C-alpha cells in the first residue's frame, strides 16, 4: 500500500508538470514557425528553423510592445504600492486595535472575494465613468490599488509575530501611532510586502479584462492587450501571437525565478506563530 501511494504521488506530480509545461512548449514551438509551417505541422512538432525571429520582431514592433511595457510598469508600480500601503494599514488596525466590529470587517473582506467580479461590473463601470477616469491609466490603477483578503491575511500573520511590547515601548517614549506604524511596523513587514508585491504584481501584469474594458485608447495599451492587434474577424496570426506571448512571459519568468524564495519564505513564515 505504501508503494502504491508513493507511485500515485509521483504520477500526479508528473501529470501536473505535463499539464503546466506542454502549453508553454506548444507556444514556444509555434513562435518560430512561419504561417505555412504553423498550418501544416502539429502543435508539438518543433520548428524547421530555430533562428526564425521574424515573428518576434513583428510582435514587438507592430504590437508596439515597448509602449505596452511602459504603461504596464507605470500601472503595476503605482497599483502595488497603494495596495501594500492600504493592506499594511488595515492589518495594523485589525491586529493592534481591538474594537467592536473588527472581526466583522475581516469577514466582509472575505465575503467580498466570494462575489463574482462580473456581477458588479456595471456598477463599477458607472462609478469609474462618473469619476472621469474612463480611458485613462487611473481607471485601472484605482481598481488594482484596492487590497484583498490574501494580502491582509499575510500581513496579519506577520504582525502576530511582532511583539506588542515594541509598540508599548515606543509609546512610552512619546511616539504616536503613526510613527509606530512607519518606524516599527513597516520594517517588520518587509518579507510580507515582498510576497504581496510579487503575487499582486504578477496578477496585475497578466490581467487583460480591466485594461481592455477601461483603457481602450491605443496609446493606453498594456502588454496583455498589445497582442490583441493580431486578432481580427478575418483570422488570427497565431504564430505572431505566440511570439508575443513568449516576450510577455520573459519578464515574469525572470522576476519569479529571482524572487521566488520570498514567496515561499513569506507564506512559510506567515504560518509560524
Report on the structure:
This protein has 14 helices and two strands. It has a domain at 65-223 and 241-271: MetI-like (MetI-like fold, Orthogonal Bundle), CATH 1.10.3720.10. With 273 residues, the protein is an all-alpha fold. Helix 8 (149-159) packs parallel to helix 14 (238-271). Strand 1 (231-232) and strand 2 form a beta hairpin. It has a two-stranded antiparallel sheet. The model has no long low-confidence stretch (mean pLDDT 84).
Briefly characterize the structure.
Helices cover 74% and strands 1% of the residues. It is mainly alpha-helical.
Task: Let me know the largest β-sheet.
Answer: 2 strands, antiparallel
Report the strand count: 2
Shape: globular
Strand content: under 5%
Strand order of the largest sheet: 1-2
Provide the CATH architecture of the domain at 65-223 and 241-271: Orthogonal Bundle
Give the H and E element order: HHHHHHHHHHHHHEEH
Distance between the termini: 35 Å
Q: Mean pLDDT, rounded to whole units? A: 84
How would you describe the oligomerization state of the chains in this entry? single chain
* Tally of helical segments: 14
Structural class: mainly alpha
Helix percent band? over 70%
**Contiguous runs where pLDDT drops below 50 for at least 5 residues:** none
Assigned CATH class of the domain at 65-223 and 241-271: Mainly Alpha
